[in-house]
Design a protein that fits this description.
The protein is of the alpha/beta class and about 300 residues long. The protein contains nine helices and seven strands, in the order E-H-E-H-E-E-H-H-H-H-H-E-H-E-H-E. Helix 5 crosses helix 6. It binds adenosine monophosphate and manganese (II) ion (3 copies).
């Protein structure tokens, strides 16, 4: 088959120089993406650091920061995986703080993972987090009349830094909710049986400490805080005064109104801009790792400060 009488292989249908064999049809190349806010299973993400990096590689992410809640433990594994995948890596963290009684998250990029000051701060937060999980388990038992201690034990099983997301997943695993969001709504949010108020370090103390142990402290997901415009401006001003240098301006879930509002805030405070997914879970299909690096007019990309990342 495929041979002429001459015994030579059949001539190709197309001249090879005009249409080289096996070349896929032309498609626009996938633009390189960046992601400066992601989570692994070292905090409340679903994927191990190496599996997160594999996801990012599949999406053509060229610059990645791992920013787990209050821990840097996944950074070594993520860095090795990034080196193997040809992705430039930034060691990061997302630190829990509070301002006017509200939880405010601050991302640290280019973290010195061996910093004694940072280690002391995050060890303290990890201890508070473990205590909170047990306290919530207790409340679920006494006020919710469910097997709260079992919920807490399940939440603490996987190791890593325990968050309320671990409790939400444990509530689902033990049949007390159909999904994590329902677990928050039914059991964990304010006004529900498992709500336990928690105190994080004050933003004005935490940011200078973090800024001293990293290259860029970034105000995380500013569009999600329940603050008036004036209060958000005050927060951004205090954040900048405390040593913060950037703010997240490009994230999934930011509508056009949010983007304009946050971009204006960044310009007003002279903060650089950051872009990230806040990726936790591949089962959330609308928020994969990777964002476009281009930011709104007049905003300096914080990513440019990491041109030396390897
Ligand atoms: P926390 O332990 O309070 O810092 O919460 C840990 C994580 O749980 C957050 O980073 C979110 O990923 C998730 N989370 C917190 N509150 C909610 C909520 N109300 N609904 C859904 N997810 C939440
Ligand atoms: Mn989280
Ligand atoms: Mn956050
Ligand atoms: Mn996050």
């Amino acid at each position: 088959m495929g041979r002429h009488d001459s015994g030579q292989p059949a001539a190709p249908l197309h001249r090879p120089e005009a249409y080289p064999a096996r070349r896929p049809p032309p498609v626009a190349p996938m633009p390189e993406l960046i992601d400066l806010h992601t989570h692994s299973s070292r905090s409340d993400g679903v994927l191990s650091p190496a599996d997160l990096v594999a996801r990012a590689a599949a999406r053509n992410v060229g610059l990645l920061a791992l920013t787990d809640h209050d821990t840097v433990e996944g950074c070594d594994e993520a860095r090795s995986a990034c080196q193997a995948a040809g992705i430039r890596f930034i060691a990061g963290i997302e630190v829990s703080t509070q301002w006017r009684g509200q939880a405010i998250h601050v991302v640290g990029l280019g973290v010195d993972t061996a910093s004694p000051a940072l280690t002391a701060q995050i060890d303290d937060i990890a201890a508070r987090r473990r205590e909170r999980v047990l306290a919530i388990g207790e409340r679920l038992a006494t006020r919710g009349r469910i097997a709260g201690h079992e919920v807490a034990a399940t939440a603490l099983e996987g190791g890593g830094v325990p968050t309320r997301m671990h409790l939400a997943r444990a509530l689902v695993a033990l049949g007390y909710a159909d999904g994590a969001q329902q677990a928050f709504d039914k059991w964990l949010n304010r006004g529900r049986p498992g709500h336990v108020p928690v105190e994080w370090p004050e933003l004005n103390d935490a940011v200078p400490r973090l800024a001293g142990a990293c290259r860029a402290a970034v105000l995380a997901h500013p569009h999600r805080y329940r603050l008036s415009g004036g209060a958000l401006r005050q927060l951004a001003a205090e954040f900048a005064a405390a040593g913060g240098v950037a703010i997240e301006v490009n994230m999934a879930g930011m509508g056009p109104g949010d983007q304009d509002r946050i971009a204006a805030l960044a310009r007003r405070q002279g903060l650089a801009g950051s872009a990230g997914s806040d990726f936790h879970d591949p089962a959330v299909p609308w928020n994969p790792p990777g964002r476009f690096a281009k930011l709104a007019e007049g905003i300096s990309p914080v990513a440019e400060r990491f041109d030396d990342a390897q």
